[in-house]
Q: What sequence folds into this?
């Protein structure tokens, strides 16, 4: 099937770019001697998770129990829920999943450790647990080494739990545009993780795993010598927002190619300089900025309403007749993926496969 | 089942508020002697569409052929696709649907009229067609009365099409905060629609239908004497953004009650003044502003990431222990609904029914 036969809006993966991205990140991790555990919240797709693991990833991350279920039931064998899981219902599901696949989870609260231990014990499973530290993001995670120690000890006293180490993910650093500011933020995060690890070591508690990093910062985590595992996710697709990060020389970050696009059709055109496409904010996420029009730098996507996108076409009037199709680079890949049920994977101009987004909508 | 047993995040409908909203809008339309054709892009739910029609609505609107299909296949009998439908594949599906239910659609382009006529003829159906005018939104629709006449004549020459009138929806006016500015915008829209209707009348072409209006402006369309049909959608749920509109006396618009909520759980709390909930931007749309915390005016939802929401709790520290649940008023109801597969309809503190969001993700 030709790409031009696909009805729009549709979510496309350019397989050539996607495969190069996977190889590049895995090669980086291999050279650095670090485990790569890509974040599956980006793609929510078991096909992609299994391809990442086939290339060398040790497993994947996800954020929700329902995401982990969807991936596990589709054959993904090692899943780290890199988030706190609260409430008896969710913990029971998480523990049940640990009977099927290898499961890891984060904690940042003592009572939550107890609840998790009870759920694991009921299911007769052992679960690997990481203590999350807030290393600068100001979101989840404990703040002091004493709190890390206290939670680690609590985990170690529960037979159904195994203390594995520390999560030190600096989410807020991922989109700091300036290279040196980004680097400094991660240096601070690494120093905090390192001091916690050293403190635990002095108490006789070892950290097998220090995990963190994203597509915006992973070289810094890698060179810190502190981290053992990288969680990058967006590198498989890239998006307009990551494209606004700057590298050391002040150029836009372009180590990974855009492989994710929204195919859209021009549906109305009644005045010079304006075209309306059929992809609005239910087809492409706008939380991190509007999409870019791929291959048409003279055309700007200037406004999104629910089902319409407005293009300023004054720079390239000829390219946008009614019925013509364009591809958009999403502003933010993760929530855009969450709007679709399928990826259309293509190579050149041919559709190769449809990949189900099994964890679409998996918010629980 | 008690509401407290629902796992989070979940999308709730407060049935008491929802039913009052439906009755109030239908009563308004009845008193004004206008047809009410609520926009189903808001709720994407056949249960709600059928309830609206049972209360007196003449049918519903939607924006996409796939939305119309989902609703038609779930028993909704009269659907206006209040949008331009472009491309042979979509037009063939639209025409096929007209064999099953009553279908209406908009056009703003001559070649599109021809394509639509061909599709309808192939299916042996007659389709009601409205010409969309741009009455101020600057998006879809033709600009001049001559263009309206030209398209109306073109429609009338096609045996498979019936010219029904004009769509004059002023989307951009819906969230103009000031009452008088909003009123003026709609007065201008009504004047343009009226002049087109009069122009057609002088040419011997009658408009049965002049359709438009939204929750932000419908009293103005109603009092214009020009419109025959109201398309309001958001009134069933309301949202934080519509709540920022001002009424005539400068007070917030509160004619309709919030009936749509996202139930969320506090999942992390490690520093004074901050709590993290499990509903981020994959659980509540942030395109029109962040959600509000229902019933807790001292607590602000201050930042959304993919799967986390950060609350400033410095005004009400006691209300937000880990594991406690809160309800959020979405910033924008339509794209929030599009993130979920089910509504949890409740009354008081009891779950009454689960209603499938059959057109969730229906972007094509």
A:
């Amino acid at each position: 099937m030709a790409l031009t036969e696909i009805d729009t809006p549709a979510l496309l993966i350019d397989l050539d770019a996607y495969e190069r991205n996977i190889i590049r990140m895995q090669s980086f991790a291999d050279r650095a001697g670090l485990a790569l555990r890509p974040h599956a919240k980006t793609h929510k797709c078991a096909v992609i998770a299994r391809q990442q693991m086939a290339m060398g990833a040790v497993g994947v991350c996800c954020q929700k129990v329902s995401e982990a279920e969807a991936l596990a039931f589709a054959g993904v064998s090692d899943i780290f829920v890199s988030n706190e899981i609260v409430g008896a219902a969710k913990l029971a599901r998480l523990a049940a999943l640990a009977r099927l696949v290898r499961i890891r989870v984060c904690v940042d609260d003592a009572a939550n450790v107890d609840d998790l231990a009870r759920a694991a014990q009921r299911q007769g499973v052992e679960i690997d647990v990481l203590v999350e530290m807030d290393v600068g993001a100001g979101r989840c995670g404990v703040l002091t080494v004493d709190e890390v120690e206290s939670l680690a000890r609590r985990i170690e006293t529960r037979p159904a739990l195994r203390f594995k180490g520390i999560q030190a993910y600096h989410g807020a650093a991922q989109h700091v545009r300036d290279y040196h500011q980004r680097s400094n933020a991660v240096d601070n995060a690494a120093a905090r993780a390192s001091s916690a690890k050293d403190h635990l070591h002095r108490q006789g508690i070892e950290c097998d795993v220090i995990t963190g990093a994203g597509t915006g910062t992973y070289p810094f985590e890698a060179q810190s010598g502190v981290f053992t595992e990288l969680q990058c996710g967006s590198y498989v697709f890239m998006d307009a927002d990551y494209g606004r990060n700057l590298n050391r020389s002040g150029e836009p970050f372009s180590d990974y190619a855009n492989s994710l696009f929204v195919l859209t059709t021009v549906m109305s055109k009644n005045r010079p300089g304006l075209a309306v496409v059929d992809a609005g904010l239910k087809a492409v996420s706008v939380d991190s900025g509007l999409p870019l029009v791929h291959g048409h730098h003279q055309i700007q996507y200037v406004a999104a309403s629910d089902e319409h996108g407005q293009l300023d076409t004054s720079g390239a009037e000829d390219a946008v007749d009614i019925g013509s199709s364009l591809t958009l680079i999403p502003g933010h890949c993760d929530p855009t993926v969450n709007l679709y049920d399928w990826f259309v994977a293509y190579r050149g101009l041919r559709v190769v496969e449809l990949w189900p987004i099994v964890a679409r909508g998996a918010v629980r």
Q: What stands out?
A: Chain A has a mean pLDDT of 97. The two ends of chain A are 36 Å apart (CA to CA). Chain A has two domains: 3-9+254-356, 16-238.
